[in-house]
Amino acid sequence: MAHPADIPAGTLRRTTLAAAVGNTVETYDYAVYGFLATVLAKVFFPASSPTTALLSSFAVFGSAFLARPAGSLVFGPLADRLGRRPALVASLLLMATVSTLIGVLPSTATIGIAAPVLLVLLRFAQGLAAGGEFTTAIIYVAEFAPPHRRGALSSRVQVGSLAGLLIGAVVVLFLNAELTREQMLAWGWRVPFLLALPLGAIGLYLRSRFGETPEFLAARSETSAQDANVNDLRARVLLLVGVSVLHVIGFYMTYTYVQSYLIQLGLSPFTATSVIAFALLIGLF
User: Fold this and answer.
1) Which of 160, 178, 266, 283 could lock 20 by a disulfide, CB 3.0 to 4.6 Å apart?
2) How many H helices and E strands in the chain?
3) Domain 4-219+229-284 carries which CATH code?
């Protein structure tokens, strides 16, 4: 059993890259909805006023965040009992499958109220996958990394998240440049979701080559349990929840909602998405 300090630099680089790239794929799937919110509002809420339709579209977007805690309750125990790798593979497989299903989902004009209902259910499933993805990926990298490099290497997972958002923004930017508004409403909005299938296959290939982390293997082989102060654990959990909530609100307000807000102010979808893509590019560095 290798100790993190004894892992070859090449192996550490590959596993860290695989964790980050897998998170890139999953964040892309999760974020595309935000960049297409104004289009999806017309596809799934055509009878509402523009403002109501957009609010309804973002309410569906928010349903995935409500599912994130449930995702942590599903994938957290899975990662602790079966290993980090199975949890990461399962979360990516769920995300890619659900995103593909959104891409083939009939519109409200075709199947009526069932369309937004199914959209909410699929977005909820995306939230379950996201709830098990980001933190598990960071844990995976941290448990592989030597103690003195954990911060630096774990931050690459966040770089992977920004890269996923950037790829989603570029795909939507390209579609806005090449397609008319009518084409985007008719079928163009489906393209980014359908791209989840090949991107997910890439991520699954990379994650199937993962090894399990040294710390997880060591913990599984231990026979004695360590006593923990329950009250102290609860306080730490609440603190982490508070920090995470603030982080996620700021993150998605900046990188998804602002795009729709700029469109509402009168900027074209191409210009608004370009602004976000530039911000994401800066964020990578």
Assistant:
1) 160
2) 14, 0
3) 1.20.1250.20
